[in-house]
Amino acid sequence: MTDQTVSSSRPSPWRMSVAPMMDWTDRHCRYFHRLLSRHALLYTEMVTTGALIHGNVPRHLDFNRQEHPVALQLGGSDTSELAQSARLGEQWGYDEINLNCGCPSERVQRGSFGACLMAEPALVADCVKAMVDAVSVPVTVKHRIGIDRIESYEFVRDFVGAVSEAGCNVFLIHARNAWLKGISPKENRELPPLRYEFAHQLKREFPHLVIAVNGGIKTTAQVHEQLAQVDGVMVGREAYHNPWWLSQWDEAFYGDAHSQETRETIEEKMADYMVRVAAEHGTPWASVARHMLGLRNGLPGARRWRQVWSDHKLKDLHPREVMALAHREVAHADPA
Hints:
Helix 15 packs antiparallel against helix 16 (319-332). The chain starts with 15 loop residues before the first strand and ends with a helix. The chain has an eight-stranded parallel β-barrel, surrounded by six helices. The longest helix is centred in the last third of the chain and has 19 residues, at 263-281. It is an alpha/beta fold. It has helices at 27-36, 49-54, 57-61, 79-91, 106-110, 121-134, 153-165, 185-188, 196-205, 220-227, 237-241, 246-254, 263-281, 285-289, 302-309, 319-332; strands at residues 16-18, 41-48, 70-75, 96-101, 139-147, 170-178, 210-214, 232-235.
């Protein structure tokens, strides 16, 4: 296993990342996000071990080489299946293998993985060790600070301690409890209170580990506040709904003030990408365009622009034609 620690002279690879989000962070979304930030670490949607071992591996693991650095998130709790799936991820070229110990959905619980694994730190440690032994890329864990009404710091401290001893040096912490019964996955992202101080305390107690925090972070100022306490910040829904924010990340968090794209040049590149994936895979442009509907958020005419790009009656038009139509609508939109 390669050393997962990083030099203090350069930013941690986990300094800024976009969270794994089911039905959202597919390869098309990640391609779009990479156009906006050169440095942010991108995560796949969760892929279950069963889907890889018994399903269509290329469908689940194929990605655009431009996406690097990109991490594969796995869902599972069987050590041999996780080791096999991690090996597949490394063979396909992923830069990191991440184990999901944070998803609270009942479907995931029925598979005995996700957030419910936090109740079994010894099992998670065995899973991590099996993956660490199987691959040379970093093995990381994304988890919550607790489950149900277990709200003590000692619970998450003991979990991190046990799992780190198995060879995991990087913990991505959604700073809320996961309530396993009674509320939906959406409510689990909003109702349990945020306790960033738990992540901060973990960093103080385990200074040799990489600790990144996730949950409710929406502004550059909030990111800087967190980076004063931990090694990294993972952003989820805000990155998806307000993607233009990512275009500020390289300069704000990596000191890389490279020549900045405009929203229009990003849109042009996405239109060209739509043409390419349609030719190569038969992918409808709407399957790609849905991920960039927040690109003009806050600008005059954004609503009409979104309506054009999400209008399935235009599905037979060339993406460049759709883009031209969207811009004509913006030009005639009420500035208010």
